Amino acid sequence: MVCANCGRRTLRRKELPQGGADFHVLVCNNDCHTTWDRDENAALNMRLLLILQLLGRDRPAVFCRQEYGGVN
Ligand SMILES: [Zn+2]
Fold first, then answer.
1. Mean pLDDT, the chain, integer
2. 17 alpha carbon to ligand 1 midpoint, in Å?
3. What is the value of pTM for the model shown?
């Protein structure tokens, strides 16, 4: 998951005091420390990708699966 504030793949689910995790709240684990509603973060990332596509720009590498060993 990419943080819409800093653009890094450093988001983690918010851990709950009683154990487990809140699947709707993400916390950025680097210097930005942004706390996100999962859907709001996703919407901002999708908006960014749409704008870049409309401008004819390449998809940022952080959003590409191959860079992280996945399959496109
Ligand atoms: Zn961040």
1. 90
2. 22
3. 0.82
